[in-house]
Amino acid sequence: MRPPCGQPPRPPLPTWQHGGVTAATHSSLFPQVPDSADAVLDGLDPEQREVAMALHGPVCVLAGAGTGKTRAITHRIAYGVRAGILQPASVLAVTFTNRAAGEMRGRLRQLGAGGVQARTFHSAALRQLQYFWPKAVGGDLPRLLERKVQLVAEAAARCRIRLDRNELRDVTSEIEWSKVTQTVPADYPAVVAKTQRDAPRDPAEISQIYAMYEQLKRDRSLIDFEDVLLLTVAILQDRHDIADHVRRQYQHFVVDEYQDVSPLQQRLLDLWLGDRDTLCVVGDASQTIYSFTGATPDHLLNFRTRHPNATVVKLVRDYRSTPQVVHLANGLLGQARGRAAEHRLELVSQREPGPEPVYTEYADEPAEAEGTARRIRDLIAAGVPAGEIAVLYRVNSQSEVYEQALADAGVPYQLRGAERFFERAEVREAGIALRGAARAGGNDSLLDDAEGLPAEVRAVLSTKGWTTEPPAGSGAVRDRWESLAALVRLAEDFEQAKPGATLSDLVAELDERAAAQHAPTVQGVTLASLHSAKGLEWDAVFLVGLNEGMMPITYAKTDEQIEEERRLLYVGVTRARFHLSLSWSLSRSPGGRAGRRPSRFLNGLRPGSVALGMRGAAGGGGIERGPGPVAKRGRRGPARCRVCGKTLTDAGEMKLMRCDDCPSDMDEALYERLRDWRAVRAKEIGQPAYCVFTDKTLMAIAEAVPGSAGELAGISGVGARKLDRFGTAVLAICAGETAEEGLEDAVDEV
To answer: Helix axis angle, 263-273 relative to 240-249, nearest 10°?
Structure first.
C-alpha cells in the first residue's frame, strides 16, 4: 500500500515479541541516539509504532497506565523530525507539569529531535503573551502575581468578610476554578447551584470577593496564572494577524494527559489550531481525578465526534506492573459506571508474574500502621530500596500515624505533596494552645467543665476550629479539621494507654513524637496522597485506610463523585510495579467497636467478597469468586443472644450468638492455640489470616468447643469448603492436641 502524500515509505515491520521491546517505563539514563529515522522505531511495540507513524491528520491515543504513552508520542515526534516531515521549531508539545515537560524535552534530545518546544499550557501561553503584548495592547506586560492569596485576603477585607487562613486558601481555589471554567463573578452562585459544587463559603460572598479581587488586579496592573491563559485567548480571538502568526510558527500540536484539559485550555488549543487538524492527543479517561480543578475528560471522549476522520490507537500493553497487579486494576474498573467507564481500557501485562496483591484487615488504625511498617521493613531487608516503596492514602491527615509507625520501626521516609504532620500550621498552633493550657492548669477557664484528658483537649482545640462534626466538603477547612481531629484521637488513645495522664503529659508526648520523626529523607519510603502520586511509580505500593468513608470519601455524594473516587483508587493500584498491599481497619483506635467496613470498591476483588454487576473482570489476581447458587432455606426467626435473649443485628454478634458486652465463656487458651495455628496455616497458603478464619469465628469456636464435624459446621463462618479444608485440624486442637499436631493433621488432609 502506498504511503500518504508527503509521508516517507513505511519501514518493514519487524517480527515483534515482548522480548524485543524496551520496557516502556524504564530506560538507560544515557541511551545512544538512533542513527536514522527507522532506528527511532526500533523497540516499539505494534501499537506504539502505529502512533509513531501516524503523522498526518488528527490522532487520538488512548493510553492505559504503564503502557508507554510518553515513549510513543516522543518517538512519534522524533520519527517525524528525523524523517524530514516535521520541522522541530514547528512542533508544540504541551503537558501539565514542568516535570513532565522537562522529561519530554530530555527524551526528544536523546532521540535526536532537539529544538522541539515541550511546555506546559501556562508556559507556552506566557511566552506568547510576553512576545505579542506590546503589539496587541502596548506597553509592558502587567506584572505576574505568583501568589494570589494575599490579594484575595485584601479583597475579602474590603468586602468586610472575615476569612481564616484555611478559608482563604479554599476561596482562592474557588477563584482559580471559576477562571479555568470561564465563570465570571456574577455567574458564580448560579454555576455552583447548577453543578452542585460544595462551596467553602456562601456563594454570594465568594462572588463578591472574586469581583473585588479582579478589581484590585486591574487597579494595580497585575495578572495571575489564569489570566495568562485568558489574555492569550483574548488576543488570539481579537487579533487575527497575531493568531495567523502563531499558526505559521506552530504547524503540529501534541497534548499529553488530555483527560485533564480544562475548558479554558481547550479554548486556547482551538485557537492555536485554527481550522487545521494537525493534532495528536494522548489520555486515559480512567485516570481523570482532578475534576475539582476544572479538568474534564469530555474533550478526550468527544474527540472522535469532533474529528470523525481521526486515527485512534489504543495502548493496552502494560510494561509497568505484573499480571497480578494489572488484573486487580482491570477488575476495579470492571465495576465502574458512567461515561468514562464505557471507554475503559483492558490492560494486558507484559511482565513476568509476581506476587498476588495482599489484602489485610487490621483491628484498628495504629495496628494497620504498625503492620504496614513491619512489612515495609521486611521488604527493605529483602533488598527492595526504601525509595522504591510508597504508602498512599486518601487525605494528608492520615500521614501522622504512618510517620510515627515508620519512625518507630527505624524506616526512613519522606512526605510528598504535604508538610510533615507536626510542621503543619494548624498542628503547631494547636501545640502552642495545648502547652499554654497545660501551664495554666486549673486557672484556664476553658477547662472548667472538662473532665478527663480528651475532654480538655477537645475544649482547647475547639478554639482552633475543631468541632464534633466534620465540616462539609473538601479543601483546606476539611484538612485543618482532620489534623485537629487526629490530635483529639491521639489524646483519647493516650489516656486509654495511660489512665490519669495529664495535659502536660500529652504535650510531652507530642514533643517526643515530633522529635522522633526527624528521619533521613534520602531514599526514604514515600508517604503521599493518592492525588499527588499521579504520574509516579514504585516497586512496592501500600494502599492504606481503604474503609468506607475514606475510600470513597464521605463527601463524595453524587454518582460521578463516587466514580472519581474509584478512578483515584485505580490510579493508586497502577502505581505498583511488583508488590501491592491493600489494607483497612475495623475500628479507629484500639479497643474500639469494630464497626467499619472495607471499601465497596474492593467488593468482588478481595478474597471471599462478591460484587454485583461486575463487567469484564477475569479470574485470578486476588479475585475470589463468591459461592454459587444455594438451595433455599426455610424462614428463620431472628437471631437472639444465648445469654440475655436480646435480638441480634450486628454480624459479629450473630456469629458469636451473643451480645458483645454479655459475659463470654470462651476458652482463652484454646483461642490462643487456634490463633497460633491460623497464623502458620495462613503463611503456608500465602493468604491473610482472616482468609482461614476471622477472629470472630475463632472466638465462636473457642466458646462452643465443637466435638464433631457437625457441631463445627453449625458455627457461623465455617462453611462446607472451610470445614473440608481445615475441619480435622480445628477439631484436633479443640480435643486438646497441640497446635503442631493439629497443623500436621490439616496439612495431611489438604
So the answer is: 80
